[in-house]
Design brief:
Order of helices and strands: EHEHEHEHEEHHEHEHEHEHEHEEH
Structural class: alpha/beta
InterPro entries: Peripla_BP_I, SBP_2_dom
Shape: elongated
CATH architecture of the largest domain: 3-Layer(aba) Sandwich
Helix content: 40-55%
Keywords: Signal
Largest sheet: 7 strands, parallel
Protein name: Substrate-binding domain-containing protein
Subcellular location: Cell envelope
GO molecular function, one term: carbohydrate binding
Distance between the termini: 30 Å
Strand content: 15-25%
Radius of gyration: 20 Å
CATH class of the largest domain: Alpha Beta
CATH topology of the largest domain: Rossmann fold
Strand order of the largest sheet: 1-12-6-5-4-2-3
Number of helices: 12
Bound molecules: alpha-L-arabinofuranose
Number of domains: 2
């Protein structure tokens, strides 16, 4: 849907995030976002966050708050508790408050046109951050800053294909995958599934035998894995759409008396510290990185759009992936 017009390095983002280690005041509990300001500059940003569902999200929120403070942007922050109606309420409240720019990470892909048209009529520019919307009208937002989730899914799938020999844990000639998907309807859940399926289709011995949402949470991942362990036979590998779900799956596998990473292989996405710790301990086998430190770039884009300058329609974050040995090497320096 989008072209990769500008690439940024994780290093630059990480450096920016660390340099601004503070926080702005915020609303939580699905409020409509009348929180205090995090800076004292000329720009007021209304930021409608998805929630606090994962370690990734917590790191992302901290990055946005710290970067706003550093950039002197007055930040109004709201936490939608993973509910689209709360995000829509927050955006409407930002429109009423006549903020200079609205940024949000849409909990799901569809259903945004009406509220984004309201923002457009009020002449308030909108920046999508982290997740995209599925709309034919690209004039409803100025730019989209975030990862390429299809590529993330492809990296996970490619690793499963490349390591097919060892991933066939019970050596019966087929690799039975159970998939714990992210929030239903969310861009990363749709795209990570697609990317993964694209790659594993190259090897007919790899099959997704069950797929269910864990809503990007640890508790969700644990519950789904408990159900899979009861309903599915010969599970070789878990593909979890984020680290938190994978960490929940580890708890379920251990409770069932098995060794995660050995008896059942685990592949996840994010590479937050808890995930990387489990990877370095051998409980996860591979993690595809998704960088949450988007705050500094978001503030740069906000300054440009509010100044009427052109910005690229798509800004893709540069990311990598880690196996167990690589995780051991970088764990000590992992910031989130
Ligand atoms: O949109 C990014 C995804 O949302 C992250 O992978 C996940 O951890 C988060 O909840």
């Amino acid at each position: 849907m989008f072209k990769q017009l500008m690439t940024v390095t994780a290093g630059v983002v990480i450096a920016g995030g660390l340099a601004a280690c503070g926080s702005s005041s915020s609303d939580s509990g699905g409020s409509s976002g009348s929180g205090g300001s995090g800076g004292s500059g000329d720009i007021t940003m209304g930021f409608a966050q998805v929630g606090a569902e994962s370690g990734w999200r917590t790191a992302n929120t901290k990055s946005v708050q710290a970067a706003a403070k550093e950039a002197g942007v007055d930040l109004k922050f709201s936490d939608a508790q993973q509910k689209q109606e709360n995000q829509i309420k927050a955006i409407r409240s930002y429109i009423q408050q006549k903020v200079d720019v609205i940024a949000f990470s849409p909990v799901v892909e569809t259903g945004w046109d009406t509220v984004l048209q309201e923002a457009k009529r009020a002449k308030i520019p909108v920046i999508l951050t982290d997740r995209a919307v599925d709309s034919d009208d690209t004039s409803l937002y100025k730019t989209f800053l975030g990862s390429d989730f299809v590529v993330e899914g492809q990296k996970a799938g490619q690793w499963v294909v490349d390591n097919a020999d060892t991933n066939d844990v019970d050596k019966n000639g087929s690799i039975n995958v159970v998939e714990i998907t992210g929030t239903t309807g969310a861009a990363p859940a749709i795209d990570r599934k697609k990317g993964f399926e694209d790659k594993i289709s190259a090897d007919p011995s790899i099959k997704i035998i069950a797929s269910q949402t864990g809503d990007f949470t640890r508790d969700g991942g644990k519950k789904v894995m408990e159900a899979f362990l009861k309903s599915q036979k010969d599970i070789d590998l878990v593909y979890a759409h984020n680290d938190d779900e994978g960490l929940g799956a580890i708890e379920a596998i251990e409770a069932a008396g098995m060794k995660p990473g050995v008896d059942i292989k685990i592949v996840t996405v994010d590479a937050v510290k808890d995930g990387m710790t489990a990877l370095s301990e051998g409980k996860i086998n591979y993690i595809v990185e998704c960088n949450p430190l988007l705050g500094p770039q978001l503030m740069e884009l906000a300054k440009k759009v509010t100044a009427g300058e052109d910005v690229p329609e798509r800004v893709v974050t540069k990311e990598t992936a880690f196996d167990q040995e690589q995780a051991k090497q970088v764990l000590a320096d992992r910031q989130y």
